From TrEMBL:
<dbReference type="Pfam" id="PF02498">
    <property type="entry name" value="Bro-N"/>
</dbReference>
<feature type="domain" description="Bro-N">
    <location>
        <begin position="16"/>
        <end position="132"/>
    </location>
</feature>
<dbReference type="InterPro" id="IPR003497">
    <property type="entry name" value="BRO_N_domain"/>
</dbReference>
<protein>
    <submittedName>
        <fullName>Bro-N domain-containing protein</fullName>
    </submittedName>
</protein>
Length: 332
């Protein structure tokens, strides 16, 4: 018999909010994580401090993180007989902090990207003080499997923080692409000047003519490479579908890409459901089937579909007799 208040070891643990999304919303970055058999999460202190702008990680830990929420990696893994993770700078003497320690460092930083998360934490505390508890809203679509854990909707502040951070990353990608295009244009101008110089050098000695021929071949090859790079950069821009043309999988995905900034998981689900919506007019596939095709959890698939609905990519049309949700394309 299990002791009162303790979770049986054989019971599968279920997180109401995906820890990766939780940490991303809190820190504005993907941070290395070590998850122990008891379900607790530990993070390299140097990674967290770097992302939050704490220049002196040792002082930040001493000022904001109590001893019970920080340890040496060797101590944490040794308690479960685990070996030190290989690669990526994992060391025995690496300082790691618990999830509570991470939240304490977030609350102590002034990084603007952390503001929505800190406001949500304040809201949770105020709600607990006022009402005695705080609970997440249940997701609109639940797994029909008997005994399946309840899926919860991600808090609005956390979800919006993730969307804003992804949008910021996409903006950086666009700025990088603009810089690449400017570099290609400058490179083409340089190639044009080189061609003029080569043309002016024609008529010199035979050795010079042979050298010029080699240089001209190199210039033509560089032009083809530059044109190809330019084409690849421009091809990244989503195609504009004709107003009267019926939707295709490509135009639907391009429209979704313009409509919202998506995480890798959301895009994985979008790529799977878009062909079905275009070819069959609606999606009647159970969440478990989509999870199996994408490699994601049923809970994560449900969150991805919720974000696609929120940003008017798809809309709900009830459910099937088996309890599976029915979705159709959102028509503007």
């Amino acid at each position: 018999m299990n002791e009162p208040g303790k979770r049986p070891k054989h019971v599968e643990q279920h997180e109401a909010i995906d820890v990766s999304d939780f940490v991303y919303a809190a820190t504005g970055a993907r941070v290395r994580r070590l998850t122990l058999p008891d379900g607790s999460h530990w993070f390299p202190a140097v990674d967290v401090c770097k992302e939050l702008g704490h220049t002196n990680s040792r002082k930040a830990l001493a000022d904001h993180v109590p001893d019970e929420h920080r340890e040496m990696l060797e101590t944490v893994t040794g308690g479960y007989g685990l070996s030190i993770p290989a690669g990526r700078g994992w060391r025995r003497d690496l300082h790691v902090i618990s999830l509570q320690g991470l939240i304490l460092l977030v609350n102590a930083c002034t990084k603007p990207a952390c503001a929505p998360f800190k406001q949500w934490v304040a809201e949770v505390i105020e709600t607990v003080q006022r009402e005695g508890y705080y609970s997440l809203d249940e997701a609109e679509v639940q797994s029909p499997e008997p005994g399946a854990p309840i899926a919860y909707a991600m808090p609005e502040q956390v979800a919006e923080a993730i969307v804003r951070l992804e949008a910021h990353n996409l903006q950086l990608d666009e700025e990088l692409a603009d810089g690449q295009r400017e570099s290609i244009a400058l490179h083409k101008e340089t190639l044009a000047l080189q061609r003029e110089v080569l043309a002016a050098q024609q008529g010199t000695l035979a050795v010079q003519q042979a050298t010029l021929a080699v240089q001209q071949a190199m210039v033509r090859a560089m032009e083809r490479i530059a044109d190809r790079i330019d084409s690849l950069v421009l091809d990244r821009r989503p195609p504009q579908a004709h107003l009267t043309a019926p939707p295709t999988t490509e135009t639907v995905l391009a429209g979704w890409r313009q409509r919202l900034s998506v995480t890798e998981d959301v895009w994985t689900v979008a790529v799977v459901i878009a062909p079905v919506l275009v070819e069959q007019g609606e999606l009647r596939e159970p969440l478990e089937s989509i999870a199996a095709r994408t490699g994601l959890s049923v809970h994560r698939v449900n969150e991805c579909l919720r974000l696609l609905r929120k940003h008017a990519c798809i809309r709900s049309r009830g459910g099937t007799e088996d309890g599976a949700p029915v979705y159709v394309l959102h028509q503007d």
